[in-house]
Amino acid sequence: MNASPISTTRKPNYTVEASEVVVAGHDTQARLMTLAPEQTIPWHYHSEITDHYFVLKGTLTIETRNPNATYTLAAGARHKLLPKTAHLLSNRGAMDCQFLLLQGVGRYDWIEADTGVIAK
What we know:
- By secondary structure, the chain is an all-beta fold.
- The chain has strands at 6-10, 18-24, 28-35, 40-45, 50-57, 59-64, 69-74, 78-81, 87-90, 97-104, 110-112, 117-119.
- The protein starts with 5 loop residues before the first strand and ends with a strand.
C-alpha cells in the first residue's frame, strides 16, 4: 500500500452487476451492491472511512492485506474493514451475491492498492 497516494484521479475500472446508492451524505454513504458470479472489485483502500459489509444473498469473499486474510461470508454475515486496509471483493459462488455496504464516517476516496491512484 502506498503511504502517499499519487494525485492522479480517474474512475475505478471494474464492473458490477448492480450498484444502487441508498443514502449519501458528506461523510457517510450506503450502497446496495450485487456481484455476478466471478465478478471482482479490485484491490483498493480508503484513507478515512470504515467499510461495513452485510451479506444479503449468496456468498461474498473479502481478501485483505496487512493483515493477509480471506473471509468468506454467507447470507446473514457481516464484516468490518478499517481505513487503510487494502481489500479485494469477489463473488466465487455460482449465484449472484448481494450485499449492503455502509461507509463512513469521513471523506470518501477509492485508492488503488497497487498504484496509489485515487479514483473518484
